[in-house]
Amino acid sequence: MPDKKVKLKFKQFVQAPPDEVFSAFSNATALCEWFCNVAQADAHEGGRLYVWWNSGYFASGEFTRLKPFKKVAFTWHGRGEPAATQVKVSLEAEKGGTRVVLEHSGMSGDKSWQAARQAAQRGWEVVLENLKSVLETGLDLRFVRLPLLGLAGVEAVTAEQAAERGLPEGKSGLRILNLSPGLSAEAAGLQKDDILTRLAGQKLRSLGDLINVVRSHKAGEKVSVQYYRAGEKQRAKVVLSRRALPEIPATAEALAEATRQINASGLAGLKQRLAGAGEPETAYKPTPEEWSAQEVLAHLIATERDTHAWIAGLIEGQEADFIYHVHQPARVQATLTAIPSLEGLLGELECLL
Hints:
Blueprint: E1 5-14, H1 18-26, H2 28-34, E2 38-41, E3 48-52, E4 58-67, E5 71-78, E6 85-94, E7 97-108, H3 114-137, H4 141-144, E8 154-156, H5 159-164, E9 174-176, H6 184-187, E10 195-199, E11 202-203, H7 207-215, E12 222-229, E13 232-239, H8 252-274, H9 279-282, H10 293-316, H11 329-338, H12 342-352
Antiparallel strand pairs: 1-7, 2-3, 3-4, 4-5, 5-6, 6-7, 8-9, 9-10, 10-11, 10-12, 12-13
Helix pairs in contact: 1-2, 10-11, 10-12
């Protein structure tokens, strides 16, 4: 008996012109605005397509058809899927917007494809809803609906640190460096230096583990948390906080001006805090595990440099892998070696802002 092939079909109306919708499916930067977290798109027939999500799922293929403002087609081979499939997107101008019809074909109807079929069904429904939201309102639902745990920094504990803090042998976790006031973690009674070992039943070994667990839930959901405090295992329930959304200026010029004002205000406050402090005071570390003021400035400089690199990737049309590497002690120390004075650090940060 011949293998029965399955075709999934989706329709979505978007209040945006066909050229914008076409770009959303064929430009790497635009893909990341609504679809995935990282993309590479060589937009010509036979050109490479690669998309990746923070969850670890990715898919690769090549463009098989590109008819400007009318049609985009590409092959699709997702991580763990038995074989390559095909995706075809048709665009039609309609009532001041665009009617999008997406067909995903080539999947088998047998059990080996069941998980992939279900994931594709739900996945396309979610991302097409987000395409509509992004192009019509500018709101990325992945961000709007993303809950907050309320941690202002965590770090993975080493085996030695785990033993020192009384964790059972073989246990790993994330030490809380600080908490954001008024959010879910604080409301649940978590404290600085608690070591998180599980969230929603999932083990936490790295910051990536924590991010993936939080992103798999919605704001307002209640999840369990397991942690150690002074060597004793504790449990609590955490209601994930909702995200406050700022009002975004309507034009690029207004956005740039608002950003300048925010940066100027933050820098002025930083300089005020450091006024009168000399090199010895700002190089002082309260504890071996905490940063000095100079190390914090080096961290902020590294953050701004990473942000500049990301923006350059956006301008060039190839989305950069926007993962900060600023927590690496070697990078902080390298910055301090290159800029060894408080005045120099403040000057470099001001230039980057």
